[in-house]
User: Fold this.
Amino acid sequence: MSAAEGRLALVTGASGYIGGRLVPELLAAGYRVRCLARTPNKLRDHPWRDRVEVVQGDVVSGEGLAEALAGVDVAYYLVHSMSGGSDFVRTDAEGAERFAATAGEVAARAAGEGKAGPGRIVYLGGLAPENADLSEHMASRTEVGRILLDGPVPAVVLRAAVILGSGSASFEMLRHLTERLPAMTTPRWVRSRVQPIAVRDVLRLLVRADELPEGTNRTFDIGGPEVLSYAEMIQRFAAVAGLARRLIVPVPVLSPGLSSLWVGLITPVPPSVARPLVESLRHDSVAGEDDLARALDDHDRIGFDEALRLALRRIDEDRVDTRWSSAAWPSAPSDPLPTDPAWAGGSLYTDRRARYVDASPESLWRVIEGIGGERGWYSWPLAWAARGWIDLAVGGVGPRRGRRDPERLRSGDSLDFWRVEEIVPGELLRLRAEMRLPGPAWLELRVGNRDGRTVYCQQALFHPRGLLGHLYWKAVTPFHGVVFGSMADNITARAEADSADGAETDGGVRAVA
Assistant:
């Protein structure tokens, strides 16, 4: 029986890139796992969902925190804002302070009752040099670590630089820059020294951090076996991927802001997410010690080239479990859902379309679930692309996040500039817009039945905020016939062609009265 057997671990940020991968690692190690989630439904379709307990709550508001921390042995704090915003520093600090304080209160109460309580907090932060002029994001991550270390419950803070794994933002940035640019002018940060680490090593060390002696309260640097410049990382990626050597010409004029726009233009990582990654590369990110390896007698690390091969293999095999975009894009938590029995948010504009389909419900659903990414949106491609580029230009997620899996969707998945808010296999796909809009928007795609015939139902919904929201809907309404009308036609035609399976078909679509 392992030392972890039966211990209860709390994971915050389980819908994010690291958290979504840590949960199955903890389960495999013998832990019982509880997840704290603002929106539990986002965890519903993960393969491990039925093996964990989920508590609805939020680290900033404190909702559900005491309940989530009750009886746990170790709590993993994996909450951090990557997309920024005017107050993300304050929000990050408030979340850490509330989490540390609540953990202390729960631990003290449990001790008084002779019960188990939180004995350790584990946090994954960023690796940055001491006394450097850090960016807001790096300074915020450092401050969160300090808050947890100063709290009443002992904390273990692991600091990592670039994390290499299929779907990580760092990997996607490196991959797309290398694949798409045989020659590039680059900012000075490509010369910075970086100690990348494979995500598999990060996950193992997060799990094993709970093996440290009771009361351990300190920071540990973790890194892979090699220290490279970013330029060397690009050349090594090219070699592993079978590409020609890249021509790299560093220039001194690209600021982090301009660099992040450049990265957003070339890669699927939007500027708002690219900026903290770029800013973290302004300084050398090299481990100053290797104490965790010695304390755990855990010295094996995956090499840089092998980490790349593992990540590329998982992409080729369509086995990307989580992606950098797994974490939700910020949106107003008070936005009502389009399914509310009585619409609580005032005006709601809709565009509804329906078609009879000469295809089985299963064929229609396969087309619906496969939408977006490489397949596109079965509509005017230029219009969708233009909307995505406009969104990117105003600081949104842009058009190229793609899909986690080419065939299957699950609740919480990002899908280009949408997010899967609800999915009922074979019946409903509801997407919530994450582009910059003057109000929340949804797109619903349904499979229905009328008089024994398959029906495709499509509905776009928009809840305007203020005068700008109303003006926006009026401005785009003339284009709906081309965008949404052709979308309905092409989805049903595709389903009919697939259902025919090679048989002759007229491919026609008929509007439902």
Q: What stands out?
A: The first strand starts at residue 8 and ends at 12. Residues 88-112 form the longest helix (25 residues). Confidence is low (pLDDT under 50) at residues 329-334, 340-345, 502-513. The chain is about 35% helix and 20% strand.
